[in-house]
Amino acid sequence: MEQYDFGIVGLGVMGRNLLLNMADHHFAVAGLDLDEQKAQALEKEADETHKVKSTTSAEEFVGLIKKPRAIMLLVPAGKPVDSAIHSLLPFLEKGDIIIDGGNSYFPDTNRRIEELDAQGIHFFGMGISGGEKGARFGPSMMPGGNKDAYERLRPIFEAVAAKVNGEPCVEYLGSGSAGNYVKMVHNGIEYGIMQMISEVYDLLKRGFGVSDEKLQQLFTEWNQSELQSFLVEITGIVLNKIDDETGERLVNLISDQAKAKGTGKWTSQNAMDLQAPIPVIDAAVVMRDLSKYKEERVEASKHYASLNTPSASGADDSLFEAAKHALFFAMIATYAQGLSQLTLASKEYNYGLNLEQVAKIWRGGCIIRAAVLEDFRKAFERNAELPNLLLDEEIGKLMTDRVQSIRTFVKTAIDKGIPVPAISAALGYFDAYRSERLPTNLVQSQRDYFGAHTYERTDKQGTFHTNWD
Predict the structure, then answer these.
(1) 163-164 and 167-168: which strand pairing?
(2) CB neighbours of 133 closer than 8 A, spacing ≥ 6?
């Protein structure tokens, strides 16, 4: 029987495109899907230079792949992953490798590693970012698991990953569920940046009546500046799209009730467990939740109609410049929060993460790719033990030069009654992080007053309790 280098279970859009990407790089690839039409679609899309085969039989599929077998699952997170694993297990052998390429919650990955390790099977949790186009032409990939077993995967992954300066946007990240954890935080950062872009859009459009044409122009121009990034780029594209049916800009016809798949929420929940402050991501999750209360928001807008500030003219280049610098400042703060969470998680879960490598593989292919990630990579190259990007001198200059702009932006939004919770959180985080002394001494006093929780003093060692009355 002809042997294939790699196999993928789940031949939907992502699975099919990733397999064809591998075939483009001269790897022989096999696909498995229980849906006959999806299985057939793979071979139909392949060209004469591709060596591909698809099947609906798990036994045939496993038999096609070279040993030790490397099989990736691209199925929805949760029970479908476990079902796919159980369908393959009867045909696998010790030393074979299963890679979960979906957005699985990292504790599930830890469980699967333990269960499969007992049977001699290596299990990898791997984040993949870049969407449909990334899968087809070069994603960013974040694998974690057994380091020795990764060598079986490395040539294939490095070939198909996005490239920046000739360097592949894939790297072995660490042990256990490191890959899924890094992807989870990646998605949390994605939530934060998307929310902040929408806040800039909202203040300019609703607060100052800036036209859709001008907004599209601004985001397109900003993508040629320090803000160069995938999310800023697609904002300009999205704002330019005309609806075929109505002739209106499509973005104005789209519901403001945002959906989410859970990775942002997981990032916030786990950050609280680790005591990792990530207020921008928290605010982004909250705003997606709040967006769902449409009927209540409509009622509240009527109830507080007297507070509505009509759109005003007066938007000028100084406002646009402040918005641009505020967004860049807030983006850096968001990356700083996410990367700091990764530092804490690496210690807590023994991942062994190298944050220079994380910044490196996020530079291309992924949804949060941005020019500034090269600055972050250099910061971690200068100091691998850097606990927070804000402590790097060069990054600090970028923040200091733009802090007045974000203050102006936030004050303007407050005066207009336009909500900017994520950008405000970025500024609040920065001001708190640079404060030698915070007012939490008062919080400690209050805790001791009502709960005898004790406190520590600045002038002597020990733990103290006071009878405050």
Answers:
(1) antiparallel
(2) none
Rg over alpha carbons for the chain, rounded to the nearest Å, is 25
93 is known as an active-site residue: no
Any domain includes 266? yes
Of 144, 143, 42, 156, which Cα lies nearest the Cα of 350?
144
Kindly give, in sequence order, each residue whose CB lies less than 8 Å from that of residue 421, ignoring residues fewer than 6 positions away: 195, 199, 283, 286, 287
Per-residue pLDDT, 1: 58
Query: What residues contact 295, with CB distance under 8 A and at least 6 apart?
Result: none
How far, in Å, CA of 367 to CA of 264, rounded? Answer: 14
What is the side-by-side strand order in the sheet with 29-32?
A: 52-55, 29-32, 6-9, 70-73, 97-100, 122-129, 140-144
| The one catalytic residue among 38, 53, 171, 190 | 190
Nearest residue to 286 via CA among 103, 432, 463, 421:
421
Kindly state whether residues 142 and 57 are assigned to the same domain.
Answer: yes
DSSP 28: -
Ramachandran bin of 391, using left for φ above 0, alpha for ψ from -120 to 50, beta for the remaining angles: alpha
Query: Model pTM?
Result: 0.95
Question: Could you tell me if 172 and 193 lie in one domain?
Answer: no
Which of 110, 142, 176 finishes a domain? 176
Q: Are 269 and 345 in contact (CB under 8 A)?
A: no
Summary mean pLDDT of the chain: 94
Give the pLDDT confidence of 325-362 residue by residue, as tens digits. 999 999 999 999 999 999 999 999 999 999 999 999 99
- Which among 183, 205, 265, 324 is annotated as catalytic? 183
> CA-to-CA distance for 126 and 180, rounded, in angstroms?
6
Q: Which domain holds residue 279?
A: 183-433
How many other C-beta atoms are found inside a 10 Å radius of the C-beta of residue 441? 13
**Is 464 part of a structural domain of the chain?**
no
For residue 308, what is the DSSP state?
Answer: P
**Domain stop point among 123, 156, 176:** 176
Which residues are bridge partners to 249 per DSSP? Answer: 242
Look up residue 24 and give its amino acid.
D
Buried b (16+ CB within 10 A) or exposed e, 144-161: bbbeebbebbeebbbbbb
- For residue 48, the one-letter residue type is E
Q: How many domains does the chain have?
A: 2
Residue 452 belongs to a domain: no
CA triple 352-340-265, angle to 5 deg:
100
190 labelled catalytic:
yes
Same domain for 158 and 196, yes or no, is no
Distance between CA atoms of residues 463 and 457, nearest Å: 8
* Same domain as 187, residue 172: no
Question: Model confidence over 256-287: pLDDT tens digits?
Answer: 999 887 788 999 999 999 999 999 999 999 99
